[in-house]
Amino acid sequence: MEFTALLVEDSAAIGAIYSTYLRNEGANVTYVQSGRDALVELTRWQPDLLILDIQLPDISGMDILMTVQQRYPDITIIMITAHGSIDLAVDAMRAGAFDFLIKPFDAKRLSITLRNALKQRQLINLVANYESSLPKPHFHGFIGESLAMQAVYKTIDCVASSKASVFIVGESGTGKEVCAQAVHDCGIRESKPFVALNCAAIPKELIESEIFGHVKGAFTGATSNRDGAATRAHGGTFFLDEICEMDLDLQSKLLRFIQTGVFQRVGGSQEERVDVRFISATNRNPWNEVTAGRFREDLFYRLHVIPIELPPLRMRNNDCVLIAQQLLIDYSKEEGKFFTGFDSKAIEIITNYAWPGNVRMLQNVIRQIVVLNDGELVMSSMLPIEIQQANMTAENKIDPYLLAYDDYINMHNSREVLPTLLPSLADNVKAEKGILVSSVDDGIVPLWESEKKIIENAIAHCNGNIPKAAALLDISASTIYRKRQSWAQESSVNVN
Question: Strands 142-143 and 99-102, how do they pair?
């Protein structure tokens, strides 16, 4: 197995011998004789293995070990010394060394240690790759493991270290400021300020001063110089929420600031320069605002470099239950209550509800339940009456023929029983409902085609809302996505 190794040994003769041992094991070896040289090499590149002598002429090998553990934790370290003791070995292992070898050692002893170290690296990498492929239920303030949110997390990870402007779009309550904060926290500016400004919450007469600051006497009430958000965000992130609410005249000044990094305070004549990363957000369609003349096109292109679209809660499968559970625990702790979960009916209602106010609405509902009720489980009767009524209305709209066929699919999901069972089902299910195509030329329709009809009918019934259709069919949304993919493959096979 090929791997890279950095050998740190002050004796040239011993270093030459151990370098040969390492090369015979498949290592690409770099050999240095001092601690300082080792640290210089590590700033240039990071090896798979570091074989480090404890007794060096300039720096203690133990000090280098602790430095490497802090700066380069992925490097596997093997300590070597001619003055071995149990206490020294224990200290080295506690500090993060993989193994401890006492000189002189032969090629066989080194080979065993190397192979064990490389096997451990393989296992660590396998576990890391597996964990990275799993859905993340939590991510920098977000809760949710749906595919839609995994895509958002991936985008945030990719753009966080860039200086490129980010434009977040999403309905009210979807977590746009949480997203902006996550971009900031994941990037190289995390230790610098994060300054948020809601353009819709500030009167247009004051918003310029809020962004750029003002000097004393600039307007009535300006009794002293005041820093604006742009100055406070220097070195960090400037988040402009509800950017489409900004007045057109101010948009031109903001554009110049974004282009140059230079601005003037209200009432001032001196230019100031700052370094900020811009993140913007809106609950509107920004391009529609551009075409309507309410948002400058040149400003749009400056800000809309990396778009992030936050999905509404109704499109996030079962994320609402995960969020509700976490909120229930948090609010119960705050309010001194003892709720631990939801009963099955409450879970069903929470899952099926459209949540027009998204996560913010869900927060308010769970807070209301915790404050007004006591118990261990949240019962469906504790939910606000409008949510209970919406659920009853949805249940009344369920097509009985759809439910009949769904029961049939669950009971007889096998091609072997179709020849005897499907004709009787066709007699009982009305063809005019568009749910089941019975037979063609007295033959039997394949199960996947009939199932496809049922699911597509449910999706159409829910106006394209796949999670809602899945809830009505009592299956997961991921099952529908998977089946649609298999249908596409089945169709292509039939065509070919």
Answer: unpaired
